[in-house]
User: Fold this.
Amino acid sequence: MTGARPRKRSLTLRGHATSVSLEDEFWTAFRAIAEERGESLSALAARIDEARGLETGLASAIRVFVLGHYRSRSGS
Assistant:
């Protein structure tokens, strides 16, 4: 893995600036999914944020979302 260490990324959720720490690979995949869906990163992050439980951090929720997206495409 080239970007094994998470890096802080800035997003705007419902008009408020926030940041998430994600590895390069997850960030790249997250951006690709948003583009594929015709959504902005902030809009997709807001949907993920709304669906996550209070015990789950946003970065973790994004990672699980990305993993689920690619698993569903591979039939796993």
Notes: The first strand starts at residue 7 and ends at 13. The mean pLDDT is 92.
